Amino acid sequence: MILAACIASLVRFTAMAFNPPVAVLFVVQMLHAISFGVGYFGVVHFIANWTDESNAAEAQGFANTLQQGTAVLSLAGFGWLVVQFGSYAFFASSVLAVLGIICVLVSLRIRPPKDA
After folding, report:
1. Is 78:93 a contact under the CB 8 Å cutoff?
2. CA-CA distance, 80 to 75, in Å (whole number)?
3. What is the C-alpha R_g of the chain?
């Protein structure tokens, strides 16, 4: 799920960097349901599978805190990028999506998923 969210983010933000027309922008913005929603559930699922029950709730809370802190810093930095680069600032988000894809693939190589 996390990999799907990263790929959707890469498509979404790369398309947005080219300042598409409103009709395309509407469709591209619908990818937010995958990039955020599926990504969130992927993180919840990941923590549930790889964390001991004795501290799973603490891990979920910590993950949410990190997500919120990252969102605040990203939004502040993105504002500066938009001033400097306009719509090309979305390429920064594309780079982060690629980094996310790499992290997920490395993680899967180090520790394959559990059997369902």
Report:
1. yes
2. 9
3. 16
